Amino acid sequence: MAISTNWEQANRSLTITMDEKFDYSKVQEFRHAYTDTPESPNQIVVDLAETQYIDSSALGMLLNMQKFFNENGIKYHIVNSRPQVARILKISRFDKKFVISER
Amino acid sequence: MRILIVDDEPVNRSLLLHMLKEEGYTDCFEAEDGTEALRLAEKHQPDLVLLDVMMPGMSGFEVAPKLKTLYKASYLPIIFITALDDRESLIKCLEVGGDDFVSKPFDRLILAAKIRAHSRIRLLSKRVDKQNQELLGFQRNVDREHTIVEHIFSNAIVNNKSVSRFFDYKISPAATFNGDLFLCAASPGGGLYFLLGDFTGHGLASAIGALPVTRIFRAMSVKGLSVSEMAYTLNGMLLELLPPDMFFAAVLVEVDASGKRLTVWNGGMPQMMLKSETGKLVRTVDSRHMALGILEQSEFDSVCEVFDAQYGDQLFSCTDGLMEITNDEGRMLDEDGLQRWFLAAPHVTAEHLYQQARAYLGEAEPHDDMTIAIYRATPLYELKDNIQLSKTPFEINMKLTSADLQNEHVLETIMDMINSQQGLNWIRSNLFTVLTEMFNNSLEHGLLNLDSSIKRSPEGFIAYYDEREKRLAALQNGYISIAARYDPIGKALTLIMEDSGQGFDVERVTNPDLDSSSGRGVTLLRELCENVEYANNGSKITVTMKV
Questions:
Q1: Could you tell me which residues of chain A have a Cβ less than 8 Å from any Cβ in chain B?
Q2: In terms of residue numbers, what domain contains A75?
Q3: Helix, strand, or coil here: B264?
Q4: Which of B17, B28, B157, B439 has the largest count of CB atoms under 10 Å?
């Protein structure tokens, strides 16, 4: 299993589905997931349903993604995070930068 | 062919004996009255009896039924040799249990032909008797084996009551063995898993696969694996195990500790329904995959549906045995019919649905297993209390030099060691975050002297990790030592990590701003651990996690 992406042309929405582990080993793969879209997205959804393990470099990667698009009105969502992962996002106050929700 | 001759007249006996000898029947013996006849019959087990009617003491009419009682299991031909020739007597010969009669003086050729005809029936009867005995023996063996297998099944497939009490379920096999399977287990992360599945067919052949599925389901539940991974692993195992024409349709569901978050994989099972407390259909979960044990691992799709229920919502699932019941008019219940039944009232129990199904079937017996499982969304936090913690203290020490550090799976080893201890698996997600944080800190700043400030720009962020890779590959000296100490009385896990580097300014990294792409690790450690202590200018860090 690895990272998978889904591009919806109609509303230019990109969904990135992470696998079990979201850590520094995913730096390149995660970057490709959002740089390789056909157009600039309106919305990016990161699906963490599978993710059990996360470290602070993953948090860095998520923020870095926002910096890459330079805040031009894109909506960022993190969906389906497990309780332990949700707690880490909360500790790091990610709710201020991402819409953390169910799908 | 053994023949018993019964006659009180010695002349008649020797006449018969002589004739039989000429016909090739040499295994003959004689009785001069009924009592002796019964005694000899018991002793020598004849295949045919030639019986006189008029004898002193017991008459032939009395002896015949007694002889027949001796031979309940098989056919013993009795031919009366009689001087009586009135119709009543001849009819009586047959009514008391005789099979034929010959009038005295007997016609030799006719008697010989009758003996041959009856011995044919006798042989046939003996063969049938033998086959019956074999069948009986076979049946007894099968029964005994079934008893053993039933015993194994009933011991192997038992759901823990503390978990199964969150379900309303009904299991109804069509035969002794069930090709349907319902399993549930607590998850180490709080919450629970359940599996409802249906092997092709029913009976023993389809039930046999339930054992390995149960084992794997339990093992994976203990590890807290994701539903996707469970589905993938089960598919691989069943693909290897099952013959090509057999497979296992199943739904796999994980419910998180809140009791509301549902992750569902449905492969080849009927539509699941989520019903609100007021009885409205909230959503359905249709089968999006092929059953387990069909697709190659490379083709297998483990994508799940994730959704949230409200407390009081009921998630209904059943096997196709219920949906495919047919009434007197030959109409199948089907998905629509079932939906009507389930949505008929806010609370419809599994037992009620089962009784409704039996009524629908009328006189007919169900020809497939039927299983219903209803989960009602409730907080599951109490399941956590069932987790037993290991009572054995331990300490793990490792010193990792450059070659070990270049192995990207190096932390997994210590994680696996810790997680293998009973109950500690529960904190595995947090343990991963904490250990990775400590480790990356020691490695990136202590040994590789990387500067986090370059991570601030998007390009710098990537450059930082490129540089990390480069420096790590070139690393020749230095080490990181890790100690993990578990205290079962204090229920605490202490982790100590020390590196051979120069250390860093701890104060500077403890309060990062919100946008910063680095420095978040220390905050995480302080939140996830009871205690965090730096020593030796940051090159040694000790943390304690509550278990």
A1: 1, 20-21, 23-25, 27-28, 31, 49-50, 52-57, 59-61, 63-64, 67-68, 79-80, 82-85, 88, 91-93, 96-97, 102-103
A2: 4-101
A3: strand
A4: B439
